[in-house]
């Protein structure tokens, strides 16, 4: 994983991200780097965790992304 993408993950002291969290961070970093419409919104978005779960009886998957703090005037506002 690129060091720049790793900066998108903020974990508690002593905790390391798992492989899936690193994949999510890389995807966020790639979107920020390649999508000019999302760049400003994603710049201040940092995750503290991510996991994939089965939904609809296991026929589909969903990703739960934990965000550390609320972005100012962004996604939740």
TrEMBL record:
Keywords: Ribonucleoprotein, Ribosomal protein. Pfam families: Ribosomal_S7e (PF01251). Signal peptide: none annotated. GO terms for molecular function: structural constituent of ribosome. Transmembrane segments: none annotated. GO terms for cellular component: 90S preribosome; cytosolic small ribosomal subunit; small-subunit processome. GO terms for biological process: ribosomal small subunit biogenesis; rRNA processing; translation. It comes from the Eukaryota. The keyword Transmembrane does not apply. The keyword Ribonucleoprotein applies. Belongs to the eukaryotic ribosomal protein eS7 family. This is 40S ribosomal protein S7.
């Amino acid at each position: 994983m690129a060091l720049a993408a790793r900066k998108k993950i903020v974990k508690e002291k002593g905790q390391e991200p798992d492989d899936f969290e690193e994949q999510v961070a890389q995807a966020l970093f790639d979107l920020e780097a390649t999508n000019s419409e999302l760049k400003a919104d994603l710049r201040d978005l940092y995750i503290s965790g991510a996991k994939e779960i089965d939904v609809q009886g296991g026929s589909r998957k969903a990703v739960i992304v934990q965000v550390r703090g609320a972005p100012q005037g962004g996604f939740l506002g």
